[in-house]
Design goal:
It contains 11 helices and 15 strands. It is 31% helix and 19% strand. The chain has a 7-stranded mixed β-sheet.
Length: 372
């Protein structure tokens, strides 16, 4: 069978590999970009001579041993526990997510135990038993000042929305820490590809039954040439925005070279009202190389319409209108037997890398089971 996969990111590459390995499918993978690996693409920058993540930091973390085992066919790993610091109004930096050291630095305190931090937060938090949105959820943990400083301004820049407009799930992904643990994630597996993501994708797509065509945009006329199409393009765009466009946020990246970077963690968040949300020093990530300051990237969130329609983050709101609109497109998609929508834009779902791998393995298996 001839199969077309639209998109050479994690969603498309995993499905292409799974189908190709059955020896029953010839798979063509197309991507409108000039490279594979989707948003995980991490080439060597010609100016710095070091590796960087072209579409922003991609940190691999998961609790799924199955996903790690699957990807381990294509890469070796190095351990890496991600840390982020936030620049405070006084110019100091402190761990993010908020922990005991964050409070001590910001307020000039000397909290020395989990119990003391809990007691202090108990004095400043608001007693909201059933929070209705992300803002109330954070008020109930940190109070108003810390919520505004560490989350409110960042959210306005990142999402173009107020915290009160966003569901709790958007901020509940961050762990709440009462001790001094400075790490960003709690997952069992916190690792990075030893030779970078691009090398991982090159091995995954290296199969005699897979053909890759880059700089190739999808056209619906292609569907008649294949038995089935797995499509990661924006589902609203595929259906010509019949119910209106789905909202996304995008990011512009500003690269600076030979800049002083005086932090010991690779990513630093800005808590001010300026346009940047964070900056990243690539030399402090595994498999990137170089020296601190060689290449630092600043991020400015924006509407995808203002960034050449580069869609990065599906938007969730408390009232749920974007998800309701997506359901209308999903209903249209179910009427097409020869097309399956995949990935973040095809399924209008924010996926971490391990989640899109697990989801794509499930989609591929369901398809193969149905084809027997």
């Amino acid at each position: 069978m001839k199969t077309l996969v639209v998109g050479a990111g994690f969603a498309g590459a995993v499905i292409a590999r799974e189908l190709a390995c059955t020896e029953r499918y010839n798979v063509t993978v197309i991507d409108k970009r000039p490279h594979i690996a989707g948003n995980a693409y991490d080439p060597v920058h010609p100016e710095s001579g070091a590796r960087y993540h072209q579409y922003g930091p991609h940190i691999f973390h998961t609790n799924s041993g199955d996903v790690v085992d699957y990807l381990s066919q294509f890469t070796k790993w190095v351990p890496y526990r991600h840390q982020v610091r936030a620049i405070l109004p006084g110019g100091q930096s402190a761990p993010m997510p908020i922990n005991r050291d964050t409070l001590n630095t910001h307020y000039g305190l000397t909290l020395s135990s989990d119990e003391e931090m809990r007691d202090y937060l108990g004095q400043i938090r608001e007693p909201i038993d059933e929070p209705a949105n992300a803002e109330e959820h954070l008020f109930s943990i940190y109070g108003r000042e810390l919520t505004e400083l560490f989350f409110g301004r960042y959210t306005r820049k990142m999402w173009g929305l107020e915290l009160s407009d966003m569901p709790i799930s958007v901020v509940a992904r961050l762990p709440v820490r009462y001790g001094q643990d400075p790490h960003y994630f709690n997952d069992e597996y916190q690792i990075m590809p030893a030779d970078g993501y691009l090398a991982l994708f090159e091995k995954m797509l290296d199969h005699e039954n897979i053909q890759v065509r880059l700089n190739t945009a999808f056209d619906k006329a292609m569907e008649s040439q294949y038995d089935h199409v797995f499509n990661s393009m924006p589902i609203d765009e595929y259906f010509d925005n019949e119910f209106g466009p789905l909202p996304y946020r995008s990011i512009r990246f500003e690269h600076r070279f030979n800049e002083v970077f005086d932090h010991d963690v690779p990513t630093v968040n800005f808590t001010d009202d300026g346009r940047y949300t964070r900056k990243t020093c690539w030399a402090l990530y595994p498999a990137c190389g170089g020296a601190p300051g060689d290449h630092v990237t600043y991020e400015t969130p924006c509407s995808y319409e203002d960034n050449d329609f580069e869609r990065y983050y599906p938007i969730k709101t408390v009232d749920g209108w974007p998800q309701r609109r997506y359901k209308q497109y999903e209903a249209l998609a179910k009427q097409r037997d020869n097309v399956t929508f995949i990935g973040r834009c095809g399924q209008y779902q924010y996926y971490d890398m391990h989640q899109v791998v697990a989801n794509s393995l499930m989609i591929a298996q369901k398809f193969l089971d149905g084809a027997r």
